[in-house]
TrEMBL record:
It comes from the Bacteria. It comes from Spelaeicoccus albus. This is PSer/pThr/pTyr-binding forkhead associated (FHA) protein. The keyword Phosphoprotein applies. Residues 88-137 form the FHA domain. Residues 1-39 are annotated as: Disordered. Keywords: Phosphoprotein. InterPro entries: Cell_Proc_Reg/RNA_Proc, FHA_dom, SMAD_FHA_dom_sf. Signal peptide: none annotated. Residues 29-39 have a biased composition (Low complexity). The keyword Phosphoprotein applies. PROSITE patterns: FHA_DOMAIN (PS50006). It holds the Pfam family FHA.
Length: 162
């Protein structure tokens, strides 16, 4: 599989409810390293090591405009979340679309907002911040392979580009 094939397209999964967010069955999290570059970005070769064949198939079958978040470190390591709604909220409150039950996450921490064929992430006033790579961000357009951190939760973002 070429790098552009892997990074460019992803699987069709339906969401659990009308929120457009689905928790997809866990993947093999035996390799949860994040890469060692100073920016926190994961080298493309390392991306292939992070994901199982099932994960890669899920990424390749994503419909255009949706995305997957792979939790690679933290209390929910191994979880995958499908993003397909226009706005997806993340936080410690169970009222969020993505619920991270940990004190390092604010009740209303961040939101993913559909932008073009992908998503941007916006911090909504969290105490501990939202990070892309190793940089704290208020708002950031996400690209396939971006490393995100919300509290103790380290995630990898993948989307299918149109």
């Amino acid at each position: 599989m070429s790098e552009s094939e892997f990074l460019g397209n992803v699987p069709s999964e339906s969401s659990d409810d009308e929120t457009g967010v689905g928790k997809i069955p866990a993947f093999d999290s035996s390799s949860t390293g994040i890469g060692s570059s100073s920016t926190g970005e994961i080298p493309d070769a390392r991306l292939l090591e992070l994901f199982s064949d099932e994960d890669i198939a899920a990424i390749e079958s994503l419909p255009v405009g949706s995305a997957l978040l792979f939790v690679v470190r933290g209390p929910d390591a191994g979880s995958r979340f499908l993003l397909s709604a226009d706005t997806v909220t993340v936080g410690r409150s169970p009222k969020n679309d993505i619920f991270f039950d940990d004190v390092t996450v604010s009740r209303k921490h961040a939101k993913f907002v559909k932008s073009g064929s992908g998503y941007l992430i916006q911090d909504v006033g969290s105490l501990n911040g939202t990070y892309v790579g190793r940089e704290r961000v208020d708002s950031h357009q996400l690209a396939p392979g971006d490393s995100l951190q919300i509290g103790k939760f380290r995630m990898i973002y993948q989307c299918r580009q149109g």
